[in-house]
Write a structure and sequence with these properties.
The structure holds two protein chains of two kinds. By secondary structure, chain A is of the alpha+beta class. Helix content of chain A is 23%, strand content 19%. Chain A is elongated, with a radius of gyration of 23 Å. In chain B, helix 2 packs antiparallel against helix 4 and helix 4 runs antiparallel to helix 7. Classes of the chains: A alpha+beta, B mainly alpha. The complex binds fe (ii) ion (2 copies).
């Protein structure tokens, strides 16, 4: 990697304009299912982002509904604290139905 | 397609620093995740060399998809029927999509789209050597689908299990679409090989030109691939160049026989002992010449790409200006 790339530059050639904003794309593949994140794209505004998401991510009927969200509007949990973040849930095994032993007489519950 | 062995970047042909086995705790945790077939996601800790290797590979792959549109795009207006034209447009559109999935994956590693574009347009970034060969006849369009996309599939299937989540997911999407590409190419070859003597000759002449450059697409022999050890340890590259090449030849020879086309290799022969085809030596000097900018179409491809980008600049500027203006108007109306 060249020196200017290391510094995050573009080799002295600054882009002419700032690139279009980044959007995250979520697609509902079928009625009844959740929207699922499938990637991102650049677009000038939400309307254009939806149109582009259709062309980029649903060329083969992969979706019946699309959400686009400005990437900078997403707040995410810290991956460095994943363990501490997930840990408190791990010891509460009584949240799962398998924690409870049922008498044999109870066939279904 | 089309990713090529990372060793094709002469600037970086020196080995990447090895991840030390007794590294820092986060390095150990990283390698343990990779060893256990876990995935690394954008905001997870990763070694700097891993990030750089991926950034180079994914962006080169994206550039290849974009440049790969040119040799086929040249034939859209000259396709022999409306059906072939519609298919070719859809195929080229898919390649644009592949480029976008991949740029989107590469951006998660911290480089902007503009920076990647600038690297491509300045000639600093590489793309697959195969697109620096010309598409002289309609048979070449069939050949790209059948052989080039066929080679791409071989290469990309193991990448679906790459340790970096966004790249693996992009590859799954790409692979789903590639089999249409290969089949439409084979279908063109099938029509030509069943056609007139002239059409059959056109098919053969095309295979004679494409066969060796396609074999070189898999990258230099394993013995010369300095990055592959590190890349395998990181579960980025899971199958070696030579293994992929052999797999491709074994799969393709029977298809050529079915088409009644002769593969231009005197040494090509089934080896009952190994259960694979033996084949003749590849001209690596030609490969490096093309990679280093001396191929028949390097200048033409890059010039076409830069021209398209520059001529589209006013459209991008106008779209942005319109969006800003509309937003301002909405604010005013709301006030
Ligand atoms: Fe592709
Ligand atoms: Fe393709």
């Amino acid at each position: 990697m060249s020196e200017d790339e290391k510094q995050g530059g573009t080799g002295g050639r600054r882009p002419l304009v700032q690139e279009w904003p980044l959007w995250e794309v979520f697609i509902r593949s079928k009625q009844g299912l959740d929207h699922k994140h499938c990637g991102s794209l650049h677009a000038t505004d939400a309307k254009q982002a939806i149109q582009m998401a259709r062309d980029v991510y649903t060329r083969r009927n992969e979706g019946v509904s699309i959400w686009v969200v400005p990437s900078n509007a997403i707040t995410a949990s810290d991956p460095g604290e994943r363990e501490a973040f997930v840990d408190p849930m791990a010891d509460k095994i009584f949240r799962h139905p398998t924690f409870y032993e049922l008498p044999d007489e109870v066939k279904h519950m | 397609m089309y990713t090529q062995s990372m060793d094709t970047d002469p600037e970086t042909r020196n080995p990447v620093a090895k991840v030390s086995a007794v590294g820092r705790p986060e390095e150990q945790r990283f390698q343990a995740t990779v060893d256990a077939e876990g995935k690394i996601e954008p905001r997870d800790w990763m070694p700097e060399a891993y990030r750089k290797t991926l950034l180079r590979q994914i962006s080169q792959h994206a550039h290849s998809e974009i440049i790969g549109m040119f040799p086929e795009g040249n034939w859209i207006s000259r396709a022999p029927s409306l059906k072939r034209k519609a298919i070719l447009i859809a195929k080229v559109q898919d390649e644009a999509g592949h480029g976008l999935y991949l740029y989107s994956a590469a951006e998660t590693l911290g480089q902007s789209r503009d920076e990647m574009m600038a690297a491509l347009h300045s000639g600093r970034a590489k793309y697959s050597s195969i697109f620096n060969y010309p598409t002289l006849t309609w048979a070449d369009v069939g050949m790209i689908g059948w052989l080039v996309d066929g080679a791409a599939i071989m290469n990309q299937i193991p990448l679906c299990r790459c340790s970096y989540g966004p790249y693996a997911r992009a590859m799954i999407r790409v692979c789903k679409e590639e089999s249409f590409h290969q089949r439409q190419g084979f279908d063109i070859m099938l029509s030509l090989s069943k056609g007139t003597a002239d059409q059959k000759a056109m098919a053969q002449e095309s295979l004679d030109r494409w066969w060796w450059p396609v074999l070189a697409m898999f990258g230099p022999p394993d013995a010369d691939s300095v990055h592959s050890g590190q890349s395998a340890q990181w579960k980025i590259k899971r199958v070696s160049n030579d293994e992929l090449r052999q797999k491709f030849i074994d799969a393709t020879v029977p298809q050529a026989e079915l088409l009644g086309l002769r593969i231009p290799d005197e040494k090509l022969k089934w080896n009952t002992q190994t259960g694979h085809y033996d084949f003749g030596p590849i001209d690596w000097d030609d490969f490096w010449r093309v990679v280093n900018g001396e191929g028949p179409c390097n200048k033409e491809r890059l010039a076409a790409r830069v021209k398209a980008y520059e001529e589209g600049q006013w459209v991008r500027d106008a779209a942005m200006a319109y969006a800003v203006k509309r937003k301002a108007r909405q604010h005013k109306e709301a006030a």
